[in-house]
Amino acid sequence: MNSIRVQVEPFDPNHEVDLLRDNDPSIGAVVTFIGLMRDINEGDKVSRLFLEHYPGMTERALQEIVDEANSRWELQHCRVVHRVGDLRPTDPIVLVAVASLHRKEAFMACEFIIDYLKTKAPFWKKELTPDGERWVDARESDDKATQHWHPQ
Amino acid sequence: MIQVLFFARFREELGVESEQLEIESLSCVGDLLDRLQHRGDTWARLFAEDQRVMMAVNQAVADRKTPLGEGDEVALFPPVTGG
């Protein structure tokens, strides 16, 4: 079973993993990625982060990414939670959790989902530094990470 | 008519969140980008050929060749930075 959520409210990664597992005795491996808000970016102190998104397309894009992961690997459950709105340092921004029979599939799918999310899902970060607000630039390394999966 | 949406830095720099445009003479997303670019100033800078612009039609990823139809929702935005 897959679950995809985009929300303003904070979430508890541990609770999300419990929900993913749901006492399913057939699960052999769970891999999670938790993206956190750092208090430093490009050498500058960052005190706040604002996340904008494109309601409707965001959920659709995440669903397509999760569907693609399920077509590439044999997975049992996927869970993606992404926050929008105002965030503070140490806040979890995103959680990707994948359950499968064996570890390999879960590791691969988890990395695939977060790599694709970073270059395909319509979210944008704006950060507050001592010099004021600025939009975060996309990273070339993120494009490379996506390309390494050989988009089909 | 088509609905055109702008997000993030594009919305802020243009000072426009969305607008309605007549579809006539716009057969694909590339035509729309050319039309917007001809407005000059910030429009010309953001939508110049060498700029990275991501586009979506009816909430699905698109490119300059994606055809446009009556009632479509087109979104133009800078490279995404979530996660």
Written description of the protein model:
The complex is a heterodimer of chains A (152) and B (83). Chain A has 152 residues and is α+β, with helices and mostly antiparallel strands. Chain A has one domain (2-134): Alpha-Beta Complex (Aldehyde Oxidoreductase, domain 3), CATH 3.90.1170. In chain A, 34% of the residues lie in helices and 36% in strands. In chain A, β9 (123-129) and β10 (132-135) form a beta hairpin. The mean pLDDT of chain A is 96. Chain B is an alpha+beta fold. Chain B contains 3 helices and 5 strands. Chain B has a 5-stranded mixed beta sheet with strand order 2-1-5-3-4. In chain B, β3 and β4 form a beta hairpin. The radius of gyration of chain B is 12 Å and the shape is globular. The model of chain B has no long low-confidence stretch (mean pLDDT 96). The A-B interface holds A 35, 51-54, 56-57, 60-61, 82, 93-94, 114, 117-126, 135-138 and B 5, 7-9, 12, 52, 54, 56, 59-61, 75, 77-83.
Secondary structure category of chain B: alpha+beta
- Strands of chain B, count: 5
In order across it, which strands form the biggest sheet of chain B?
2-1-5-3-4
CATH A-level architecture of chain A: Alpha-Beta Complex
Q: How many helical stretches of chain B?
A: 3
CATH secondary-structure class of chain A: Alpha Beta
**What would you report as the Rg of chain B, rounded to the nearest angstrom?**
12 Å
How do the SSEs of chain B run, as a string of H and E? Answer: EHEHHEEE
Looking at how many chains there are and whether they match, the oligomeric state comes to: heterodimer
Beta-strand residue percentage of chain A: 35-45%
- Helical content of chain A (DSSP H or I, runs of 4+): 25-40%
The CATH superfamily of chain A turns out to be: Molybdopterin biosynthesis MoaE subunit
Number of strands of chain A: 10
Number of domains of chain B: 1
Order of helices and strands of chain A: EHEEEEHEEEHEEH
The rough form of chain A would be described as globular
Nearest-angstrom radius of gyration of chain A?
A: 16 Å
Q: What's the pLDDT, averaged over the residues of chain A?
A: 96
Distance between the termini of chain A: 24 Å
Main beta sheet strand tally, sense and closure of chain B = 5 strands, mixed
The CATH topology of chain A, please?
A: Aldehyde Oxidoreductase, domain 3
